[in-house]
Design brief:
This protein is of the alpha+beta class. It is built from 13 helices and 21 strands. Strands 5, 6, 7, 8, 9, 10, 11, 12 and 16 form a nine-stranded mixed β-sheet that branches. Strands 13-14-15-17-18 form a five-stranded antiparallel β-sheet. Strands 2-3-1-4 form a four-stranded antiparallel β-sheet, covered by helices on one side.
Length: 456
C-alpha cells in the first residue's frame, strides 16, 4: 500500500519503533466479523472464532455472500467490524440501569443494534442519521433487528441540541478522515489529506457543540472515530474538557490478549484498535461524563399522541399486546412502549423514519394486514400465524419480491419462513401468493447461488 507521505510523517513519531509493523499491517487482510442477534438466533456460526470483547461477535473464516443469505435479511445477525463491537464494553462498564440513548451518527446501524442488545431492559434507543438515504438504510437495519424500543430519525445534531437534558447516553461515531479504513478502502487512501483531517476536526467540534445540551448532567458521551491521528481523538477529548468541562471516565478493564492500545497522548482513557496489534480495523473510542449540575428537563410539547384500541384480530399477533400502547400514524397501527411514547412526545417536530413496531397497515382503507416490520419483530407471536416454509431457492425468489406458486389452495395472509426464521408476508389467493416484501428492500440481482451460505 502506498501510504500518503504526510500520513507517514505524522504517524511515525507517534508509533516510533512500531510504525513499520503498523504500515505493513495496513496492507494485510483482516477476517470479516458478524454479531449474532441474541433474541433471534441462539446458534453460533460454524467454524468461527469469538470476538473476545463482544458477547455475540464472531470472526468468520471466509466472507460469504451476505446478499444471498436469507438469515441476514431476517435479522439473525449484523455484519460489523470487530473493533466497533468494543462499545459493548463501555456500555456495560458505565450503564447499570435503563437509559435513554441517542446514537447521533448512526447509519448503517452497527452501534444502534449493539446498544439494543446490550442495554438494560426498559431502555430506549434513538438512532439518527442526517443524510436521508443513509437514514433509510438505518431504518431498514433497525427494523430487521426487530427490537421494539427504538426510534429512527433524519435530523441534524442542532435539532437534538434543542432536546435539553434528555439523554443519559449519547454515542457520537463521528464522521472522520477514515485512516482506519485504509486497509479495506482504497478510496480512503486517495482522499486523505491534512486539509481533510482539519476539515473533519472542525465538523466534529461542531457536532459535539450542537448536541452537548441534549446530554443530562452526569450523562455519558461515547465518542469514537475510525481514524488514528491525535487531532480527531485525544485532542478532541481535550476540546470537550476545555469547552464543556467534560470529565474523563474510569478505565475499562482490558485483557492483554485483545491487543487494545491505550491513549497516545493526555490523561483521558482512550482505547485504540491498531491493525498491527488487534484483530480488527482501525477504531478509537473513549467515554466522557458531563459534570453534575442543575437538571432542567425539556417540557413535553403541546401535541398529544392519540391512542387507539388494537383491533381484536391483531392482538394474537403479538406475544404480549397489553404491554404496548397503540397509535395510528397515517394508515399504520404502531405499537409503542411507554419509553418510546414518551420520547415521541418530546420529538413532535422531528422527521421520524421508524418507531416502535409497525403492526399493521390498512388494505385499501378496508381490513388491516400485518406490516412487514411485525414479521421481523421479536414480539411476533409465530404460533398465531399461518406459515409457509420455503427452501433456499424459494427464499431468494421471495426476497426478490417474486410471486409464489402454492402447492395447495390457500387464502389469507401467511408468513414466509426459511429454516424457521421469518422473512415476511404473502397474501394467498388460491394456488398463488402475492409477495408483500418491501419493494425497496428486494434483492436486485438475478443470480442465485447453487448452495446456500452455511453460517449456522
Amino acid at each position: 500500500m502506498n501510504l500518503p507521505a504526510d500520513f507517514i510523517t505524522r504517524m511515525r513519531p507517534l508509533l516510533g519503533e512500531d510504525f513499520d509493523r503498523f504500515a505493513e499491517a495496513l496492507g494485510a487482510s483482516q477476517p470479516v466479523s458478524i454479531r449474532v442477534n441474541p433474541l433471534k438466533c441462539s446458534g453460533e456460526p460454524v467454524d468461527a472464532e469469538r470476538v473476545e470483547w463482544s458477547s455475540n461477535g464472531y470472526y468468520l473464516k471466509q466472507r460469504p455472500s451476505f446478499t444471498f443469505d436469507p438469515l441476514f435479511h431476517s435479522g439473525c445477525y449484523y455484519v460489523q467490524e470487530a473493533s466497533s463491537m468494543f462499545v459493548e464494553q463501555l456500555l456495560k462498564r458505565f450503564v447499570d440501569k435503563p437509559v435513554r440513548l441517542l446514537d447521533l451518527c448512526a447509519a448503517p446501524g452497527g452501534k444502534t443494534t449493539l446498544s439494543l442488545a446490550t442495554l438494560p431492559q426498559g431502555s430506549i434507543v434513538v438512532a439518527n442519521e442526517y443524510v436521508t438515504q443513509r437514514a433509510r438504510v438505518l431504518a431498514e437495519n433497525v427494523t430487521k433487528w426487530g427490537y421494539s424500543n427504538t426510534i429512527v430519525t433524519n435530523n441534524t445534531p442542532a435539532d437534538y441540541g434543542k432536546l435539553h437534558h434528555t439523554f443519559d447516553v449519547i454515542v457520537v461515531d463521528a464522521p472522520c478522515s477514515g485512516e482506519g479504513m485504509f486497509r479495506k478502502d482504497e478510496e480512503a487512501v486517495a482522499q486523505w489529506s491534512i486539509d481533510n483531517v482539519n476539515l473533519c476536526v472542525e465538523r466534529q467540534k461542531s457536532i459535539l457543540s450542537d448536541v452537548w445540551s441534549a446530554l443530562k448532567p452526569g450523562g455519558v458521551i461515547i465518542y469514537s472515530t475510525c481514524t488514528f491521528n491525535l487531532e480527531e481523538n485525544e485532542e478532541m477529548a481535550q476540546f470537550m474538557i476545555d469547552e464543556f468541562g467534560a470529565e474523563p471516565m474510569g478505565e475499562v478493564e482490558l485483557d492483554k490478549s485483545w491487543g487494545v492500545t491505550r491513549a497516545l497522548k493526555g490523561r483521558v482513557p482512550f482505547y485504540r484498535f491498531m491493525p498491527h496489534k488487534a484483530v480488527g480495523e482501525g477504531f478509537t473510542v473513549t467515554a466522557m461524563r458531563k459534570p453534575e449540575g442543575d437538571y432542567r428537563p425539556l417540557k413535553m410539547g403541546k401535541t398529544k399522541l392519540k391512542t387507539i384500541s388494537l383491533p381484536n384480530n391483531l392482538k394474537p399477533l403479538l406475544k404480549d399486546s397489553a404491554k404496548f400502547e397503540y397509535t395510528l400514524i397515517k394508515d399504520t397501527v404502531v405499537a409503542l412502549s411507554p419509553e418510546c411514547k414518551e420520547m415521541l412526545l418530546l420529538m413532535e417536530k422531528f422527521n421520524i423514519f421508524h418507531c416502535g413496531i409497525s403492526v399493521a397497515v390498512t388494505d385499501k382503507g378496508k381490513d388491516y394486514i400485518p406490516h412487514h416490520a411485525l414479521s421481523q419483530s421479536v414480539e411476533l407471536n409465530m404460533a398465531e400465524v399461518s406459515k409457509i416454509e420455503v427452501n433456499y431457492k424459494e427464499a431468494i425468489s421471495y426476497l426478490r419480491r417474486e410471486a409464489m406458486a402454492l402447492a395447495e389452495q390457500q387464502r389469507g395472509i401467511a408468513l414466509v419462513t426459511y429454516n424457521g426464521y421469518p422473512l415476511g408476508w404473502v397474501k394467498c389467493v388460491g394456488n398463488r401468493a402475492n409477495n408483500l416484501y418491501p419493494q425497496e428492500w428486494r434483492i436486485r440481482s438475478e443470480h442465485t447461488p447453487d448452495i446456500a451460505p452455511a453460517l449456522f
